[in-house]
Amino acid sequence: MKIIKKPWGSEEIISCNKIYVVKKLFMKKGHRCSLQFHRLKHETVFLITGMLKVYFGSNKDKLKKKVLKKNQSIILKPKTIHRMEALKDSIYLESSTPHLDDVVRLEDDYRRI
């Protein structure tokens, strides 16, 4: 398994093949990932522990918000703008199509491109 350090925590690739990818992510309380979308990638996020606020929608200025608690999930279809924010230290699974490089960042707290 490959662990990738992120400024907001880390991600561990559990399985990656031509059909799907499964990752286990850790996000530190008070941190959030970039506001982003994917052209092709379809993903499902399932919260194991903690609490995540998910921002999502088609217009970055009018995003919906959903708080995920333990054992809750959300499906993010391609072209859905989204961001996860940890309200508590959180561990979650992401299952997706295998488009690992399909990330278009719109905003990023850590100044990544």
Give a short overview.
This protein has 113 residues and is mainly β. The chain has no helices and 9 strands.
Characterise the protein shown here.
With 113 residues, the protein is mostly beta strands. The protein has one domain: Jelly Rolls (Sandwich), CATH 2.60.120.10. Strands 1, 2, 3, 5, 6, 7 and 8 form a seven-stranded antiparallel beta sheet that branches. Strands 4-9 form a two-stranded antiparallel sheet. The two termini are 26 Å apart. The model has no long low-confidence stretch (mean pLDDT 97).
Order of helices and strands: EEEEEEEEE
The number of helical runs is 0
Question: pLDDT under 50 segments (min length 5)?
Answer: none
Domain tally: 1
Distance between the termini: 26 Å
Structural class: mainly beta
* CATH-defined fold name: Jelly Rolls
Q: What characteristic shape results from the CA principal axes?
A: globular
Rounded to the nearest angstrom, the radius of gyration is 13 Å
Strand content: over 45%
| Average pLDDT number | 97
In the CATH hierarchy, the architecture is Sandwich
The largest sheet, given as strand count, sense and whether it forms a barrel, is: 7 strands, antiparallel
Give the number of DSSP strands.
9
CATH homolog superfamily:
Jelly Rolls
Would you state the CATH class?
Answer: Mainly Beta
Helix content: under 10%
